[in-house]
């Protein structure tokens, strides 16, 4: 459904009224509709700022240069030149005195960041700090970044933070491309952790980043699942789309468009995990990417919630996922360097009225990936969760007007996300180059104010 405020502002007749009433005009986010470019930062002005002793200057500078950015020192910026990409290597930050340097360096730049600009802060991993002060100072950057995101979000600027483990300096390329590129347009206010614990793949291609990979996406007849299947196909993956037999016609149609393989199956059926495993074994011999997207809601307050509502949600959103994972992992069908991605939700982080069942399952996935990531690290397999906020789908179209408007505006970017925004994040986590991320839950919510 189109954004009402954007429509009002763009129409010459209603635009003056919207402006005189002081209605916010959500910025049109700079998204991409194709695959990753070989030189993603071409034509962009990038600044690398280092408060304290940065440990990551060299790899960051190389990534920006390889990506085609025009890299400047802060003093070299022309009078009215805007910054598209601001990377802050705070990996050497240790004491509150380093915050003084941080302020001194960023204060003159904050108002020079371009519309749809990107800010990425790199911090040391607090658990690796030499002392509690170092851990606290590193963690303080999260408060800094989230506040800056709220100050700059109305201009479409995103601000994110990556905690980088000491052994992960060689895993920054893909995170930088995502968080500093158009793919991360609706991801802001996030703190991710990049580690070296997962074995890295030997080589990663420069384009068609998923060529040769086999992916399976559940709940892919429509909405976020369909957008994800399309996005993975764009990067060259072979994609299998699963959805309930009742959605077969929709599934066939969408697979025809995307060039994916349809597989009608209710993931809660008793023999679904074995059938899925047999299908993957027979058709492809194994799987590289598994996206657990299928999910349902059955909302009622706990006092009014019938047992079947409770159980249906637990079955689809959690039990089926665990059973499918077990079947595929036990049969050795998830290949080394595989990627497992789970659709959680903001409800799983903040809780939501009438969603005790749904929020339980979505929060369970957050705990599940954290532990599963560690278990599978030796095989180079990563497990991460994605938590969408307000995404414009058939589900949100059905909301009453005022609930929908409130949902859309309660984030720093002042607008709802698109299924493609979620698909971008899932795609990023599916890439070989995302090998530094496991056990993370990343929100795609425009820095939603709820649960922040
Ligand atoms: P959707 O309802 O549009 O699509 C979900 C798909 O899953 C449907 O095609 C449905 O048929 C399929 N499905 C349901 N039960 C199934 C089963 N037993 N077996 C196989 N397929 C089944 O939902 P969406 O908005 O695209 O959401 C996708 C995922 O993202 C869900 O897990 C949802 O909880 C999560 N999510 C969505 C939003 C949002 O704003 N749309 C927000 C937070 C989280």
Descriptive key words:
binds nicotinamide-adenine-dinucleotide; alpha/beta; Rossmann fold; 7-stranded parallel β-sheet; 452 residues; 13 strands; globular; 15 helices
Short recap of the structure:
This protein is an alpha/beta fold and 452 residues long. Helices cover 39% and strands 18% of the residues.
Write a structural description.
- The model has no long low-confidence stretch (mean pLDDT about 95).
- The protein folds into 2 domains: about 150 residues, Rossmann fold; about 230 residues, Rossmann fold.
- It contains 15 helices and 13 strands.
- By secondary structure, it is α/β, with parallel strands linked by helices.
- Helices cover about 40% and strands about 20% of the residues.
- It has a 7-stranded parallel β-sheet with strand order 9-8-7-10-11-12-13, sandwiched between helices. It has a 6-stranded parallel β-sheet with strand order 2-1-3-4-5-6, sandwiched between helices.
- The chain starts with a helix and ends in an 8-residue tail after the last strand.
- The protein is globular, with a radius of gyration of 22 Å.
- Bound molecules: nicotinamide-adenine-dinucleotide.
- Nicotinamide-adenine-dinucleotide (NAD) binds next to helix 7, strand 8 and helix 13.
